[in-house]
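Z., the sequence and structure:
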Amino acid sequence: MNWRDLFVISPPGRQVRGRRPPVQAGSTTGAFVTVQSITSFPVASGVVFAVWKGVGSVSAQASSSRITPLLVALAVGCVVYLATLTDVRVHRPGGLIEWASSVGVAFVNCVLLWVAALGLATFGPAGHA
């Protein structure tokens, strides 16, 4: 793995059990230039915010808590992570290092969803800056 692997998305190819197919020139896409990257984060952070405020309408303590959106972000992140892993077109992590990297990136994404929800509450239509 080199540093470019952090910024590219390789389309799934035919895979022999236990071995990845060779990546051909021109078969990767920048992670910041895909439609998925434009839509997935705003939708996921909106879901975290909406669920947090929905729970908050029932419980005033949950509405003002910063832990509630963290728990919601972790739940949303887990759903997205498991949905990705169960997709037959997606390469599943092979070894311990790949699994640890995969879970680490998923956790960082959950934290980013949490921070985005807090930002929406502060500066968004429901918040007062």
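Residues 96-123 form the longest helix (28 residues). Residues 21 and 85 are 18 Å apart (CA to CA).

Let me know what you think.
H.
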